[in-house]
Design brief:
2 domains, single chain, rod-shaped, mainly alpha
Length: about 80
Amino acid sequence: MATDPHTEDIRRQIEHERNELARSVDQLRTSVKEATDVRTKIAEHLPVVAAGALAAGFVLSGGVGATLRLLFRRDQEE
């Protein structure tokens, strides 16, 4: 039984679409992996991240209030 030429065209097109989809999925996986690679991003910007962490720790631990109280207490003692 001979296959219809139109059927062969459809099969080739389906195969082509399958290959394109596989390539797109591979590209998407690569993009997601790069976008979610936190270690590399932190390593590239380590000084900025460290300074931000230090500042956040200082503020969250009440460093601003404690520093101001210390400064104002010294002014009142003099």
